[in-house]
Amino acid sequence: MISHEEGIERAAAFLSVSSKYWKSSNVRTMLEQAFTDGMRLIVPYDHVDYLDHGRTGMQLAGNLPVAADLVTGHCSFISRKEVEEFMGRDLL
Question: Could you tell me whether strands 27-29 and 45-47 are parallel, antiparallel, or unpaired per DSSP bridges?
């Protein structure tokens, strides 16, 4: 079992590695919007220019948040279906 804080750290590390070769790779997790669903920590992210400077043209669309499993520590992107479910519950 890992803590919420370790889940945040693992999600950020996973995003860093995963986004390394993306066209818009300057992304960062949004800690204030992270939430727990069962035994998973869901961590949204966006482009740094949007987060730090409010440049709306840099805001990402269609990105899938990172899920950190709080039991195993494994991280992955959530599915489009999960995004829709979380949006339906006003979590995203």
Answer: antiparallel
Contacts of 5 (CB under 8 A, 6+ apart): none
Q: How many residues does the chain have?
A: 92
If you write DSSP's letter for every residue of the chain in order, what string do you get? ---HHHHHHHHHHHHHHHTTTSTT--EEE-GGG-EEETTEEEE-EEEHHHHHH--GGG--SSPPPEEEETTT--EEEPPHHHHHHHHHTT--
Q: Give the chain's mean pLDDT.
A: 94
Which pLDDT band, with edges at 50, 70 and 90, does 15 fall under? very high
Model confidence, pTM: 0.92
